[in-house]
Amino acid sequence: MILVVCPNPSIDTEMEFGDFQSASVNRAISQQYFPGGKGVHVALALAEYKQPVLLLAFWGGATGKWLRELCEQQNVACVGPYLEDWTRFSIIINQPGRYKDTQILGKGPCVNNREIDIFFDWFKTTLADVSWVVMSGSSPVGCPKSFYQDFIK
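Above: the chain's sequence. Below: its structure in C-alpha cell form.
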C-alpha cells in the first residue's frame, strides 16, 4: 500500500472562455470539475496503474465530501479528518490569448492545532500498513512551516 499525504486538496474547475478580458465581466462557455491538488493527482495516477493507494487529506465541508467520494469512485481509499471549512477550488482559465492556462488557486480551509494533531494521528496510524509514503502539495492555512518536516521526523 502507498500512502499519499495531500493536506490541501482542491476541486479543479476548468473554465473555457472565448475571449477573457481583465477588469470585465466574463461568462464561461463551459466548465468542468476534477479532483485536484498535487497529492490527489499522485493518488489517482497510482490507482490508474492498479496500485493500492491510501489518500490522507483534510476533507472540508460539502466540497471535501464531494472530492472524497469522487476519489473513492476511482479506487483511491481515503482517510483523514473532516473540517467545517470547505475544501478549496482552483480555477483554470482555458482560452486562446493572453490568459491561456491562467490558474487561480483558492486558499482552502484554515486548520487549527487540534485538527493538525488529528491529521498527524491518522498519519501515524496508517504507517504500519504502508510500504511507501508520498507527501505532495501545499499545506492549508494554519499549518506550521515545518509541517512536512514534522511528518518526516
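Residues 53 and 76 are 6 Å apart (CA to CA).
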